[in-house]
Design brief:
Number of domains: 1
Shape: globular
Helix content: 25-40%
Structural class: alpha/beta
CATH architecture: 2-Layer Sandwich
Strand content: 25-35%
Largest sheet: 4 strands, mixed
Strand order of the largest sheet: 1-2-3-4
Number of strands: 4
Number of helices: 2
Radius of gyration: 12 Å
Mean pLDDT: 91
CATH topology: Transcription Regulator spoIIAA
CATH class: Alpha Beta
Low-confidence stretches: none
Distance between the termini: 28 Å
CATH superfamily: STAS domain
Length: 96
Protein backbone atom coordinates (compact mmCIF):
# COMPACT_ATOMS: atom_id res chain seq x y z
CA UNK A 1 0.00 0.00 0.00
CA UNK A 2 1.46 3.37 -0.97
CA UNK A 3 1.63 6.35 1.34
CA UNK A 4 -1.29 8.66 1.92
CA UNK A 5 -1.08 12.23 3.20
CA UNK A 6 -3.97 14.20 4.65
CA UNK A 7 -4.35 17.70 6.04
CA UNK A 8 -6.80 17.03 8.88
CA UNK A 9 -7.12 20.46 10.49
CA UNK A 10 -5.21 23.67 11.27
CA UNK A 11 -1.59 22.58 11.59
CA UNK A 12 -2.63 18.89 11.72
CA UNK A 13 -1.60 16.19 9.27
CA UNK A 14 -1.75 12.42 8.92
CA UNK A 15 0.62 10.10 7.05
CA UNK A 16 -0.55 6.53 6.46
CA UNK A 17 0.43 3.43 4.52
CA UNK A 18 3.92 2.57 3.33
CA UNK A 19 6.53 5.32 3.12
CA UNK A 20 9.53 3.74 1.42
CA UNK A 21 12.11 4.81 -1.13
CA UNK A 22 10.97 2.12 -3.55
CA UNK A 23 7.48 3.63 -3.62
CA UNK A 24 8.41 7.31 -3.90
CA UNK A 25 6.67 10.28 -2.34
CA UNK A 26 3.20 9.27 -3.53
CA UNK A 27 1.72 12.72 -3.03
CA UNK A 28 3.50 13.58 0.21
CA UNK A 29 4.46 17.25 -0.16
CA UNK A 30 7.87 18.59 0.69
CA UNK A 31 6.44 22.11 0.88
CA UNK A 32 6.26 23.73 4.32
CA UNK A 33 3.40 22.48 6.46
CA UNK A 34 0.96 24.99 7.89
CA UNK A 35 1.81 25.95 11.46
CA UNK A 36 -0.93 26.43 14.06
CA UNK A 37 0.11 28.05 17.33
CA UNK A 38 3.73 27.66 16.21
CA UNK A 39 3.56 23.95 15.44
CA UNK A 40 2.75 21.45 12.73
CA UNK A 41 1.64 18.09 14.12
CA UNK A 42 2.03 14.96 12.03
CA UNK A 43 0.24 11.79 13.12
CA UNK A 44 2.13 8.72 11.91
CA UNK A 45 0.04 6.10 13.74
CA UNK A 46 -1.26 4.67 10.46
CA UNK A 47 2.19 4.25 8.88
CA UNK A 48 2.50 0.53 8.19
CA UNK A 49 6.07 0.42 6.87
CA UNK A 50 8.74 3.07 6.57
CA UNK A 51 12.38 3.51 5.77
CA UNK A 52 14.77 6.42 5.44
CA UNK A 53 12.35 8.22 3.12
CA UNK A 54 10.00 8.94 6.03
CA UNK A 55 12.93 10.14 8.12
CA UNK A 56 14.05 12.46 5.32
CA UNK A 57 10.53 13.87 4.93
CA UNK A 58 10.21 14.48 8.69
CA UNK A 59 13.62 16.17 8.77
CA UNK A 60 12.66 18.45 5.90
CA UNK A 61 9.35 19.42 7.54
CA UNK A 62 11.22 20.03 10.81
CA UNK A 63 13.78 22.23 9.04
CA UNK A 64 11.04 24.26 7.36
CA UNK A 65 9.07 24.68 10.59
CA UNK A 66 12.16 25.84 12.50
CA UNK A 67 13.04 28.29 9.72
CA UNK A 68 9.67 29.95 10.40
CA UNK A 69 10.13 29.92 14.17
CA UNK A 70 7.95 26.85 14.75
CA UNK A 71 8.31 23.20 15.63
CA UNK A 72 7.31 19.86 14.16
CA UNK A 73 5.49 17.44 16.42
CA UNK A 74 5.41 13.76 15.47
CA UNK A 75 2.72 11.76 17.25
CA UNK A 76 1.48 8.18 17.15
CA UNK A 77 4.77 6.54 16.21
CA UNK A 78 4.69 2.76 16.47
CA UNK A 79 7.25 1.01 18.66
CA UNK A 80 9.24 0.15 15.54
CA UNK A 81 9.23 3.73 14.19
CA UNK A 82 10.02 5.10 17.67
CA UNK A 83 13.00 2.75 17.83
CA UNK A 84 14.19 3.90 14.40
CA UNK A 85 13.93 7.54 15.51
CA UNK A 86 15.87 6.73 18.71
CA UNK A 87 18.60 4.77 16.93
CA UNK A 88 19.12 7.59 14.44
CA UNK A 89 19.09 10.24 17.18
CA UNK A 90 16.08 12.00 15.69
CA UNK A 91 13.66 11.90 18.63
CA UNK A 92 15.36 14.91 20.18
CA UNK A 93 14.61 16.97 17.07
CA UNK A 94 10.85 16.69 17.28
CA UNK A 95 8.68 18.34 19.93
CA UNK A 96 6.68 15.91 22.04
Amino acid sequence: MSARFEHTGPGLYRVAGSVRLTEGLAGIPLAPLELHDGAATVDVAAVETADSLLLAILLEWDRQARARGGVLRVVGASARLSALLRVTGLTKLFAA
